Amino acid sequence: MRPPITMTNDWKTEKSDSRRRSQTPSQGPGAVSPEVAEELLGGPTEVTSLVMADGVLFYATAGGWLYAFDVASGDAVWSQSAADLTHDHSRGGPWLCVVGEFLVVGGTSIAVYRTADGTMTNQFEAPPTPDGDSGINTLSTDVWKPTAVDSNSIIATRQGVARLYSLDGTEHWEYSIDDGRFCHPSADSERVYLLQRQVVGAAPEPIVDGIVHALTLSGERVWDVDIHGHVDRFNDASAPVVGDTGVFIAQEASSGSPTGDGLTRIDKHTGVIDWQRDGEYHIALGPNTLYATDTYKDHILALDSETGDVNWSQDIDRHPDSPTVSATSTTVAGDRLYTYVGQQLCVVDTASGDVIDTRTFSTFEPVRHIVGNHALFIGTADGYVVKLGGADAVTDSPDKFCTVCGNNLEEYTDPKYCPQCGHSLVE
């Protein structure tokens, strides 16, 4: 039996009387505490990305700092400035992914760090010079968004360009579009999936087409399909979620779009749309079930991932005194669903839809989270991470959890990729 995740703070990456933080010096180069980073950057900036590998939590802040913390104790492992990878106006970055023993950071360039000590081993795709020609607009606020493909390569998107790289910076192929931009990429052991955002009209509000592209790992197009709807440009919730037989897209519904469908299932092999559902959802994929949270209607659905039939639905009472929560993370870990709805974090039984526990936030604003090592790790708007529960948890073997998103893989038989984030599990 796995110990339950309790909704009490275990540690926070901040020194205070009520929460503990490591007092030991960091082991990595250029080590600096979050407090010092705030001082150097002129103020706190939100956590943009969280990943986990081998008992270490890595996170980035919008101001361009990277941190590594031991997930059990909260002790600092290393911290590093990556400010040259970002710029003041970037939204939604830097983005992180773990590839083997390396942390890949996507910003206005792509950099590779050793997970053990934070040493940067490579940097490529730096912004072009004014007289250079890379197909990338130097004034754009877009940043590179990397996703692991295998133990030595990534797929990364920026604007309307997707490229497959080895960690040494070798570019294997490029796939580009003339109009629109790519959201976060996804991948499994056979293909890469790209969601394109393309504005096709402007009344009564922007009409935005969402086009999904499926490519082989050698960059050849397999299929593409127009799903319509209002695709969120900056949120990684717009990334395709890849299952065994289907690809799922969650979008913002739009009254100005022809259909406004907020949730779409596409047959993974043929590219045919199997079903769509209206609404504005954030989703997580479990075994045979897709969980969808509608944060505007304070509603959670459990859908059969093949047919779209509703297994259960749950209305959540909005907490009247809680500050507004802008976080949109929805995560499945074993028999628990963790999602933000009704201005609170809800822990839901995946089988019945019953709400097991809730947590409101008055001292910090959550912006994203991951689950791993029997604990919930919440990135905050002021650049810290709070760990909820897990003080008595026993660490599972590394192959039980996805090293990128922390998804629990215990219920899957010999998985080839993570059903939640698409990270390849093939060595």
Q: How does this model look, in words?
A:
There is one protein chain. With 427 residues, the protein is mainly beta. The chain has a domain at 150-278: Thrombin, subunit H (Beta Barrel), CATH 2.40.10. It has one helix and 33 strands. The chain has one helix spanning 34-41; strands at 9-12, 47-53, 56-61, 65-70, 76-81, 95-99, 102-106, 110-114, 120-124, 145-150, 153-158, 161-166, 171-176, 181-182, 186-187, 191-201, 207-216, 221-226, 241-242, 246-250, 261-267, 273-278, 281-286, 289-294, 299-304, 310-315, 330-333, 336-341, 344-349, 355-359, 366-372, 375-380, 385-388. Strands 14, 15, 16, 17 and 18 form a five-stranded antiparallel sheet that branches. The protein has a four-stranded antiparallel sheet with strand order 1-33-32-31, with no helix packed on it. It has a four-stranded antiparallel sheet with strand order 2-3-4-5, with no helix packed on it. A hairpin with a 5-residue loop joins strand 16 and strand 17 (207-216). The protein is globular. It holds the Pfam family PQQ_2. Residues 1-34 are annotated as: Disordered. Residues 1-10 have a biased composition (Polar residues).
